[in-house]
């Protein structure tokens, strides 16, 4: 599988809480590839948390930083890259990804996502009085775009290793 990838990376896309980082890290380990997390890279480059970047500079600033960081990471050669949930909405980023990687959408249902994101506070888009409504809207507008990924894997509330093996199957 790794040979078949050549110099392409595996990029995981999907909504917050779909498991991109957790599954991505395990997948990288299994395949002997480097793992990169775009959100973590953005935080490192800015020396601020995502929530702080949103609060201080606003979302458009975050999005342009996100585009740059992902483009830079993709040039580093074969790796597993977890993107933030909004990254794939950028056409420029989708083009970068298709030039350098195979993209996988980790598709997950509403209830699973809500139970996961409730556990983590660092999600500025959901820090409002109606996180459930926000999530429904995000899923509605984003799903047709995530569907442009090269493959879709259902990331239900099953062990992450099961999802990881489904990704490997989708790639072979
Ligand atoms: C976002 C998802 C987050 C992070 C930022 C915006 C989004 O990443 O990039 O809060 O627009 O869906 P995760 O998908 O890793 O939570």
Regarding quaternary structure, what we see is single chain
The total domain count is 1
CATH architecture: 3-Layer(aba) Sandwich
| Secondary structural class | alpha/beta
Shape: globular
CATH superfamily: P-loop containing nucleotide triphosphate hydrolases
**CATH top-level class:** Alpha Beta
Name the hetero compounds present: shikimate-3-phosphate
Total helical segments: 9
Can you describe this structure?
With 172 residues, this protein is α/β, with parallel strands linked by helices. The chain is built from nine helices and five strands, in the order αβαβαααβαβααβα. Strands 2-3-1-4-5 form a five-stranded parallel β-sheet. Shikimate-3-phosphate (S3P) binds next to loops.
Give me the secondary-structure topology.
Blueprint: H1 2-5, E1 9-13, H2 20-31, E2 34-37, H3 38-46, H4 50-57, H5 59-74, E3 79-82, H6 91-100, E4 101-107, H7 110-117, H8 131-146, E5 151-154, H9 160-171
Parallel strand pairs: 1-3, 1-4, 2-3, 4-5
Helix pairs in contact: 2-9, 3-5, 4-5, 5-6
Shikimate-3-phosphate binds at residues 16, 20, 39, 50, 84-86, 123-125.
EC number: 2.7.1.71
GO molecular function, one term: shikimate kinase activity
Pfam families: SKI (PF01202)
Q: Care to give the gist of this entry?
A:
This protein is of the alpha/beta class and about 170 residues long. The chain contains nine helices and five strands. It has a five-stranded parallel β-sheet.
Task: Fill in the keyword field for this structure.
9 helices, alpha/beta, 172 residues, Rossmann fold, binds shikimate-3-phosphate, 5-stranded parallel sheet
């Amino acid at each position: 599988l790794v040979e078949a990838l050549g110099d392409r990376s595996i990029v995981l896309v999907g909504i917050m809480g779909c498991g991109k980082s957790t599954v991505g890290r395990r997948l990288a380990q299994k395949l002997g590839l480097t793992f990169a997390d775009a959100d973590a890279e953005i935080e490192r480059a800015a020396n601020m948390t995502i929530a702080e970047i949103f609060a201080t500079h606003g979302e458009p600033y975050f999005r342009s930083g996100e585009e740059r960081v992902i483009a830079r990471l993709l040039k580093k050669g074969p790796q597993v890259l977890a993107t933030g949930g909004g990254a794939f909405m950028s056409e420029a980023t989708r083009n970068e990804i298709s030039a350098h990687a195979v993209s996988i959408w980790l598709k997950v249902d509403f209830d699973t996502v809500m139970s996961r994101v409730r556990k983590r506070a660092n999600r500025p888009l959901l820090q409002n009085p109606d996180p459930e409504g926000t999530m429904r809207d995000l899923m509605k507008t984003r799903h047709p775009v995530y569907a442009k990924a090269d493959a879709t894997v259902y990331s239900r509330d099953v062990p992450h290793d099961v999802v990881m093996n489904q990704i490997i199957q989708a790639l072979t």
